[in-house]
Amino acid sequence: MQIEDSIKEILSDIEKYSPQPEKVKLVVVTKYNVCEDMQKLFDLNYKIVAENKAQVMKEKVAYFKDRNINDIEWHFIGNLQKNKIKYIIDTVSLIHSVNSLSLAEEIDKKSKEINKITNVLLEINISNEESKHGYRIEDLYRDLKSLLELKNINIVGLMTMAPYIEDEDLVREIFCNLRKLKDELNEKFFDGKLKELSMGMTNDYKIALEEGSTIIRIGRKIFK
Ligand SMILES: *Cc1c(COP(=O)(O)O)cnc(C)c1O
Prior knowledge:
Structural class: alpha/beta
Distance between the termini: 12 Å
Bound molecules: pyridoxal-5'-phosphate
Order of helices and strands: HEHEHEHEHEHEHEHE
Oligomer: single chain
Number of helices: 8
Largest sheet: 8 strands, parallel
Number of strands: 8
């Protein structure tokens, strides 16, 4: 019941806060959960989930495959080590966390081996904190040409994480800057191909929606 109520609340917040609610997708972050918890979500017929550890995702995929639950959309949102791409590459529908050229190249290579074109987002360190993962903007510009040459990845948008801070104006500015970066990249390099903005978590998803998020990634609010 709890899970269902939270999902309903978030879906109605999408209508309330997003300027284009029809473009927004809720991805339920299940990294804190065991498979039995996830089953409750699937029983409600909500099947878009995200994990942040490749090995764990692989085990969960196998668990549900064994139970013949096959129409789950798996997203990957964590720091992805190159030697673990193989665990997720065949099932993942979107990798949110591409933060270097070498990682993109390796995903491209592993995708090619299985004849797949993998959808990815570039994770951007928009607030430029030393501690955060994500592409620094200057590095992104340096790598863009090479990124665009990779044939087995399809870059469909950008992702960022705002820091945990009280200052809502600063959070809003970070999301707003990601949107501006997407628009600029679309104009100069991607010819409008970047559609997605993955931004907003439990603490800040309403602000993210107002600033044009198309994918919100929510864990704690759903599985308290
Ligand atoms: C854990 C996590 C989330 C979900 O965060 P909540 O605060 O639980 O909603 C979203 N995105 C990423 C990248 C995460 O690691």
